[in-house]
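Need tokens for this chain, all 171 residues.
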Amino acid sequence: VDASNIERNLYLTTQLLELGIPVVIALNMMDVIEKAGDRIDIERLKKELKCDVVKTTALKGIGSMEVAEKAAVYARQRPECELPHVFCGSGEHALAHIEEAIEDRVEKKLLRFYAVKLFERDEKVIAHLALPRDIAAHIEKHITDCEREMDDDAESIITNQRYAFVSHVTE
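Here are the structure tokens for all 171 residues:
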């Protein structure tokens, strides 16, 4: 993650975290941040994102070994990951219903990923899961209810809530 452009980079990070795999963030270009007199609260970032964050400066080789060592430990141990609370309100409500509808059809660690993709009406995921009509209709009802309540389309709801979360984290 480019520390000098953290908001844009954390949007992608929220998507990666949904994959349910352990993540170590290499917060790069910290020398630029510190030289400018700015500060990033690493502990708060870890708490909000529910993953490890290591300050790095790639050009100087600072922190790279620590990131690699942590990633290697995670690869060996494969710990369960807690997901950050990215979504809220009726968006989270709809996602919870979608998760409940598909929990016996996908791996537990990928439940949030699939729920978000179904909420966004991702055609590849819909085809891959090949849900029975009654379950697909149940999911669609929750999506349309949320769209009506938030007066927006599903994809925009997900995008806006991701950006709101990133904005909260980077305050």
